[in-house]
Amino acid sequence: MAHRSGEEEDLQAVALFGQDVQGVYDRFSNALDEQNVPHRYYGFNSGGSATEKQKNFLRSLLRKHAGTETAEAIRNYLNCRRMTGDPISFGNVSDAIQALRSLTEDRAT
């Protein structure tokens, strides 16, 4: 993949997500805060790459909660990371799963 400038990435992000790359990342962070997901440090490189099993579980939760603000913020964030060539890490997936699980718990109460 050819390296793009930050400006090119922002233009593509606006076209795809309606906001620049930082806006997508901020929306993800805000969604985690709204679901009371604590900020954790997973070590070097956010715990390394997420496994396919973790990614598949996250995909199933995203399908289950499709259309919610939290799920769409997570989906846009992960797609934006893919677009910019940033790997999806264990930390990204773990935080996203925790936020989506809290939506399930909210529905149960």
Key features of this structure:
mainly alpha; single chain; 109 residues; 68% helix
In short, what is this structure?
The chain is an all-alpha fold and 109 residues long. The protein is 68% helix and 0% strand.
Helices and strands, with pairings:
Blueprint: H1 6-17, H2 21-34, H3 52-64, H4 69-84, H5 90-108
Walkthrough of the structure:
- The structure is a single chain.
- With about 110 residues, the protein is an all-alpha fold.
- Helices cover about 70% and strands about 0% of the residues.
- Helix 2 (about 20-35) runs antiparallel to helix 4, helix 3 (about 50-65) runs parallel beside helix 5 and helix 4 packs antiparallel against helix 5 (about 90-109).
- The mean pLDDT is about 85.
The overall strand count is 0
Global mean pLDDT: 87
- Fraction of residues in helices? 55-70%
Structural class: mainly alpha
Counting DSSP H or I runs of 4 or more residues, the number of helices is 5
The outline comes out as globular
Largest sheet: none
- As a percent range, the share of strand residues is under 5%
Rounded to an integer in angstroms, the radius of gyration calculated over CA atoms is 14 Å
Kindly, what is the distance between the CA atoms of the first and last residues, rounded to a whole number of angstroms? 46 Å
What are the low-pLDDT stretches, counting only 5+ consecutive residues below 50?
A: none
Order of helices and strands: HHHHH
